[in-house]
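Lab manual, section 2.4: Encoding a predicted structure.

Procedure: take the sequence of the chain (186 residues), apply the prediction step described in section 2.3, and record the output as structure tokens. A sample record is shown.
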Amino acid sequence: AGMFSAARVWWLFRLMGKSDIAVLDGGYPKWLAEGREVEDMAPIMRDRHITVSRQNHLVKDVTQVAAASKLKDHEIVDARSPARFRGEEAEPREGLRAGHIPGSKNVHYRSLLSSDGTMKSPDALKKVFEVAGVDLKRPVITSCGSGVTAAILSLALERIGHKDHSLYDGSWAEWGAFDYLPVEKG
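Recorded output:
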């Protein structure tokens, strides 16, 4: 509902080379709350051709994130809840270690949204990132539990004009499963 999956779809279309993508701010719940028109008819499906041009700069893999963590040449920003980020709350996926990628910062995705589910203003978004210690002059890699809510961070970065960002698609589901990768807590 709301921004949760919409931002991920936005990011996936961009990853595949599509740039004219819009997100309904506040999503379907806000649309309904405003009393806007909806219908329950089955959609009309048509075959369409789409040309894909993968934008590799928008995605990072585990090797690239490990290098960024070690070299400290990117800001790594984790969208999970503060308790999960600090390693104080168990991960919902069995077998994952608790904690976060060394050197990463925590910006819980919900902190970017207003009470009605819309994204905060650009000035308010900048403030959230700055309070979390994120240097917005540096390239940013977004992460979360599985690559879904990290896209909300990416959408927020795009909204404030920060174009040098990418998403770690494996996110904690991948990093936390590999025993050879370092983990920080606290």
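Check your result against the sample. The chain has a mean pLDDT of 95.
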